[in-house]
């Protein structure tokens, strides 16, 4: 009985200490680790959010880009960092719910080593084809894809097993056509090849493609969202075209090293949500790119990741992607 009281007292003391720590947090600069090079949608959003967190919390939030290996390099770095709230990972779901089904060895365990903080936003993607591709609608695209059995459409993604690879694997399975996967090292190198027709199609973030689509350098066939993107008002959604769900979106979330005090995680989640609900922030950094605010709590994000691992295991299996 006494042991139980001591144990309970220790837990209460830890909670009180964590809460007091969170009240003064942060007292020094915070590093936001991003698993992609500068300039992409995850990096751009992390920088915008970091700037506003700097203003809100009166300490610098510094971006540290650690690109490579489907965010594994960044994940390993964060997993080994001190769990004190001063190293935070701004990531997609790839290192949290996909990589464990893709790689035989990761060097980190997303469940054991990383702590959910918040799912910040959902980022829609769009299916785009080269200007000379003989289809102007998704229906025409599928007709062409089914006919090209001997010369399957060449589909470009930002890497095997990543968030830009798996949606096409699901679309091909659901709509019964063959395709040839052409993986690139990230999204940026895809654009010049797609524009001149070296590859036929890609599915990438609306924010990354919209300028090239509006300039007629690419053709957009469908957007994955509940409603049309404000920046691409003439492009229908997969849903309104009656296409089965292919999850052509990705999330941007925050995680921390396991053991980071829960009150700090809750504070980061709460302040980030407040930033995203600010009209000026939304108008500049979210609405133009069709980002959907989520702003979940650590508990809600944890539940989301548990459910998403089931979905991603099936998607990886359908894609046939396996990596060493």
How would you describe the overall organization of this protein?
It is a single chain. Strand 1, helix 2 (41-57) and strand 2 (61-65) form a beta-alpha-beta unit. The mean pLDDT is 92. By secondary structure, this protein is α/β, with parallel strands linked by helices. The termini are far apart. Strands 1, 2, 3, 4, 5, 6, 7, 8, 9 and 10 form a 10-stranded mixed beta sheet that branches. The longest helix is centred in the first third of the chain and has 23 residues, at 2-24. It folds into 2 domains: 2-123 and 250-319, Bordetella uptake gene, domain 1 (D-Maltodextrin-Binding Protein, domain 2, 3-Layer(aba) Sandwich), CATH 3.40.190.150; 124-223, D-Maltodextrin-Binding Protein, domain 2 (3-Layer(aba) Sandwich), CATH 3.40.190. It has 11 helices and 10 strands. Belongs to the UPF0065 (bug) family. InterPro entries: BUG, Bug_dom1.
CATH-derived topology of the largest domain:
D-Maltodextrin-Binding Protein, domain 2
Our measurement of the CA-to-CA distance between the termini, rounded to an integer number of angstroms, reads: 51 Å
Spans of 5+ residues with little confidence (pLDDT < 50)? none
Task: Count every helix, treating DSSP H or I runs of 4 or more residues as helices.
Answer: 11
Q: So, the CATH homologous superfamily of the largest domain?
A: Bordetella uptake gene, domain 1
What sequence of helices (H) and strands (E) makes up the elements? Answer: HEHEHEHEHEHEHEHEEHHEH
- Strand pairing plus helix content: what structural class? alpha/beta
Rg computed from alpha carbons, rounded to a whole number of angstroms: 21 Å
How many strands in all?
A: 10
CATH C-level category of the largest domain: Alpha Beta
Strand residues, percent = 15-25%
Shape: globular
CATH architecture title of the largest domain:
3-Layer(aba) Sandwich
What's the number of structural domains? Answer: 2
Work out the helicity level.
40-55%
The major pleated sheet works out as: 10 strands, mixed
Average per-residue pLDDT, rounded, comes to 92
